[in-house]
Amino acid sequence: MATSVDPRTGLPVVAMVGGGQLARMTHQAAIALGQSLRVLATAPDESAGLVAADVRLGDHRDLAALLDLAEGATVVTFDHEHVPTEHLRALADAGHRVAPGPDALVHAQDKLVLRRALHEAGEPQPAWSEARTVHEVAAFADDVGWPVVLKTPRGGYDGKGVFVVDGADEVADLLERHGSLLVEERVAMVRELAVQVARSPYGQVAVWPVVETVQRNGVCEEVLVPAPGLDDDAATAAQELAIRIADRLGVVGVLAVELFETADGVLVNELAMRPHNSGHWTIEGSRTSQFEQHLRAVLDYPLGATDATAPVVVMANVLGGAASADGWTGPALDERVHHLMAHWPDVKLHWYGKGQRPGRKLGHVTALGTDFEEVRARAVAAARYLADGVVDPAFAFAFADDEH
Ligand SMILES: Nc1ncnc2c1ncn2[C@@H]1O[C@H](COP(=O)(O)OP(=O)(O)OP(=O)(O)O)[C@@H](O)[C@H]1O
Ligand SMILES: [Mg+2]
Q1: Which residues are bridge partners to 17 per DSSP?
Q2: 127-185: which CATH topology?
C-alpha cells in the first residue's frame, strides 16, 4: 500500500527523474489514475516539462535536486538511466523509495555489469569481454572474428556509444577516448526482438507479447506486434526469459529486454528499466499501457491485464525528416497533423512537443488491424508523411480526394 499520498487527492505522488517523452506519456497515464506526475526536467520546454503540473528544474546528476524531487513523493522513478548510482543509494539512505532500486537499475546503466550478471545466471548473450587495451580487443577478435562491436559501458543511447570496428587500428582511438570498453562479437542476427515485463515489489509479474523492433542507423523506427512469424514456443521462451531476468535482478517497474534473434535462438542485447520505445504500441494496442503499468508496479498496485486489443499492432516513430530541415517550404506541422487525421482517421498520433530537428524522435503513430502488411504500410506511411511531408504513392488516392 502506498505510504504517502497527496492530501488534495488522497492518492500517491510518483516523482520521475527526466522530462522527456517517456515522462510525458507516463504523466498522461497518471492522470487517469487520479494522480499527477512530479517531474525533474532540465528545461521548462522539455517534453514533460510542457505538460506536468509539478515540474522541478534541475540536473539528474545533482543530488540536492534529486532530494528536493523526492521530498514528499511516494516513490521516485526514472525516464532514463543516467542518474549516478551513488545518488540512487543516497536517496534510498535518506528514506526515499526508489524504483527500480539501485542494485537492479545498475544492470540497465552499465552494460559490463549486465554481461557479468547474465553470465552468472547462464542466460544467452553474445560472446563478450572487457577490454582496456588494443591487445585485449585483438585477442578477443582472433577468437570470434572481425568485425567486433565496441560499446561504452555507460551513457549510450540510440546507438551512440556503439562502434563496429573492422580492425585493430580503429581501436586505440576509442580506448583513449572512453577508457575501458565492452567488446562483443558482431552477432549474425535474423532480426531484433524485445519483450517487456512489469514487476511489482510484491513480486507480481505481467508480460506483453514479444515484438519485433526495426532499427535503422541504430535508432528504432518500427515496432511490429506480435513479432511476425515467431512460433508460440519461441515466444513463450522469450517471455519466460524476461520474467526470469526481472525476478533475478529484483526489478520494480517495467523492464524491456532487447533481444537478437539468431538461427540458434535469442541472445540478450541490453535492458531498460523504464517505459521503452518498444512498448509505445501498448497505449492503444494493449489493455494496459506500459506507462500505466509502470506506475502500478512502482506503487505496488496490482498489475493490469496485458492482452493485445487487436491481432496486429504497428508503431512507427516519427523521426525528424525533410520537414524539420531549415528552409522547409512544404506544409507546416499543424497542416501535416490535419492531413494525417483526414487521411488516416484510424491511426493514432502521439506528438512529444519537442523542437523539430532532423533525426530527432518527435512523436510516434500507432495503427491496429488484422492484416500485417496493410497495418504496417499504414503506420509507416503516416509517420513518413509527418516527417517528410511526402505521401507514399500507395496512399495517394486519399490525398487526391482532397482536390474535390
Ligand atoms: N553485438 C552486436 N552485434 C550486432 N549488432 C549489434 C550488437 N550490439 C548492438 N548492435 C546494434 O546496435 C544497436 C544499438 O546497440 P545497443 O542497444 O547496445 O545500444 P544503445 O545505444 O545503448 O541502445 P538504444 O539504441 O536501445 O538506446 C542494436 O539495437 C543493434 O542493432
Ligand atoms: Mg538498445
Answers
A1: 40, 78
A2: Dna Ligase; domain 1 (3.30.1490)
